[in-house]
## 1
Amino acid sequence: MELLLSKYKIQEEHLFTSFDALWALLIDIGRVPGGPEVYCIIDALDECESDSQETLLQQIDHSFNNLRTNDSVPSSIHLLMLSRPYPELEQYLSTFKCMDLGSYREITNDLRAMIKDKVEDLAWRKKYPNSVFEEVSQILEEKAAGTFLWVGIACGELARVQSRNAVKTLQALPRGLHSLYQKLLNAAVSASDEDDHRVIKEILGFVAFARRPLTIIEMAEACRLYFDKDMDSRLQFTRELIDLCRLLIVIDNGYVRLLHSSVQDFLLLEIQEINAMKTNYALSCRCIETILHKCQPAMDKSELDPEKGFLGYSVLHWPEHARLSQTEFAIREELKDFFQIQLETWDRWLDYYNYLKRSPWGSLGS
């Protein structure tokens, strides 16, 4: 505590907003003579935003790699990091002790316990006969292939059907996450009107590449949905479209998110219409359109609230989407006014951008 207070007196609030300052504090705590053992668990490292992931890995490599550091002061810090085995992570972490969790018998036992808990809950809700309970449990164990997420999605599908259809539904689900995602997407498309097919894929792409999770009204405006409806109808109709995407995306505390980062992997690999650069370009254009239409002189800054619409997101994030679209980016004719400095739209955008960077809305991201 004395170490923390001494750092805070010098850096004040900057201590809690700077990653470098917080990391240095963690390292200092680990080197206090006679101090406590510190255990840090970093789950789903592979799901971390790429720039933040790179920063964290560089710091871990610099601070804890014995081949690179000459510091003789022992550290009481212990890190446990969980991740899928991506090459870009292995290049930093290969010198540390690594284990394949799938090879541990305890994982199988944990998965079996999860299946038992899920099926007991389904049996209570759906009034499964004993024979259905046993068969569902057996099929889940056989098809899961050690993947907890697969079991969770499969049980989500079972929750939609009556007990007499439980076994048939489960037998129809493919093994492997990508195959399961494809089946869910096919079901979403077949359950919707032809006019909604494009919208469903646009929603999936925007959720996958938005710089932070979007609210329902932000999603409605980003995808140009139901502009002619009142707010209640617009929100409800947009929710219904999101619900069509089944378990690929979810609404969590009012924000639309991917179920899991593996959904983004699936979308990029399997869905031809979803491309990182093209989707970022589409998002940058929607952002600029929104700024042109809504960013007015003397506008009430409450209009930048994510609960009010897509304007705040657009002001803050269009430059990132433009950068990430790389060679796809081009200035459309209808967007040229935004880049005409003499028309003052650019100045208004910059004013609101600077305001948002200082506001709580500017730090939304999880």
## 2
Amino acid sequence: MGNANSACVDGIERRGRVYYMRIRVPKRYAEVEPRREINRSLKTCDQTEARARFAVAIKALKADWEARLAREEDGSTTNAFSGAISLLEAWDMRYVPMQELVHGSITDLVTRIEKVVNSGVQSALVPAALGVLDYPKIKVSEMPAIVEELKAADIASKNANQLREWRNKYINAAKVFSEVCMDKPVCDITEADAMRFCKYWKARRDGGEVTTNHVNKRIRFMGQIVDAYYWKFDIPKSHRKNPFIGQAIEKIAFDDRTNDGKKLALPVVWVSRLVRGEMLEGLNDEARDITIIAADSGTRQSEIYNLPESDIHLDHPIPHILLQTVRDGEQKRQIKNTASFRPVVLLGASLEAMRRHPRGFPRYRGKGSYSGAVNKYFRENNYFPNPPEGLLLPGGLEAKFSIGSTRHTFEDRMRFAKLTNEERAYLMGHSIGKVRGRPVYGSTPDLRLRALYQEMVSFPTDTWEPRPIEALRKEIDRLAKESGFRV
């Protein structure tokens, strides 16, 4: 009785005491699987173990068929390689190039050979398990889309304009590489190609077209493209060779374009006029008030025009905005870095301006048109002040102002108000760890403290006057004592 055969149920049948897999080959795989039916011993007399072995076997079979199908249908090696890697995972193996297999563990090699023998000579497992797959021939021009795919989680919070700017880094790097070295498969890029690419950019730097910083960013973007290729296809680290590593060019003495991160601070008197609304008559209401809020509060203009409505808190006892990443919805946006996540207290002119736009700035939100339009307006109307006489940037370049210079003026305003470097970093959204030069411990300033810091540098309006700095310092001490601190 115990040796009788049983009917096939869910692909498993018993013959005598042993369980077998018995399934029909799906029509989808008829092109790559000559057998109409799979009959295979599960090599067990235990029904529970048979079910477990069946699940593993069916997964491996389907992975094998998919890999074969990809190899047949896809003229390139991309899908075939990915299918083969998935097949190896189904067999609990990873891809190891043949050269490493030969010099590696004998046990591992024997195990792979046994699995290959059991799978059949037509199986896609044969080249995958024995390490003789061809790497996918993905061209450089195809890689920006793959970089985006791999970075999906990192860029999920970017709005349309932020995403466009992010994409263009890799699109432009790939485009220039293709023009300089040809659009070739990433796996075929040589060190000579990387050097040619770097020399092209170095020549442009030496000719004064671009900065050293600009060049090294382009080299870094190409290095990231190569790394993304390796990650996409799970290529072993021993077979990863990124020829762009170590190719950064050095700054040259008296580089007239190197100091591109250094912006001039606008005169504080000029900024105070701006905050009062002077020189803004020709701008639309949104551009005008974005300019006022950013100039008064020391924020980046993009932090203001990208504000989602949900981060504007005008009814709070201490009116403020929250600068933070918003991951979902039409008003999502990504903040520059973690240090930039902060509340910004609104006082005086910035509070009045924000009250005129309680829902934010839809005309500019998620777009990149504000800076260009506002800088053009100020330059065409000759509103920017002349730089101090005799002031030249390194290399003799003419010093120029931009609307973004108001943030640099804010640094000066804080410095002359005698805010500590750490207090300034909190308001600016800069890294406290870098300021301290050590790990960050302790709490961050609450809204009450931030409001006092902000008031120290705020401009008066017709309806509001900031208190003297000495009085504000006394209030800070009072709050500290109230919380139990010694001052």
